[in-house]
Amino acid sequence: MHQFFLWIETSAFSVWVRESLSMFAFPGILTAHTIGMGLVAGMNTLVDMRILGVVPKVPLFEMRRYFPVMWFGFWLNAVSGVALLIGYPTKALTNPLFYVKLAFIAVAVVLLRRIQRQVFAETPPHPRVPTLSERRLAGWSIFSWAAVIFAGRFLAYTYSKLTSLEHG
Questions:
Q1: pTM (predicted TM-score)
Q2: In total, how many domains does the chain have?
Q3: Which structural domain range is residue 124 located in?
Q4: Count of helices and strands (H, E) across the chain
Q5: Contact 88, 163 (CB under 8 A)
């Protein structure tokens, strides 16, 4: 794996992400990643809280308009996350917490799709109350996105190797 990490870390893009003084390099990519997380996890939490009964006067079905923004945030995170991974592959791929984060992302996305399909499948003829099953999905969704955020933040403090270049 050491050679694989070295190969990535010596690529022009990886060096640019780590060493460029451009605001579009590491700082810009990290900012995009943060904005993406705010969109996907933040708006998802809004929808989940409504499913859980917060602000019941807001028509539940109207919250469907947030899904395109959530998916934009997810894809912004996916692209910026891959860019960050290319910048520091050793730091991420040698840290077990990175895999915990990926697992919670997978769970959160499955829940997001399930909520989108189950709760917002068709226009209801009248306002409806979310089922217990739908409320459980919303609760697990909030938990999963929170776990993604916590795992992601702790990655900055729990790595054992920053780069393979330093341990060559």
A1: 0.91
A2: 1
A3: 2-167
A4: 8, 0
A5: yes
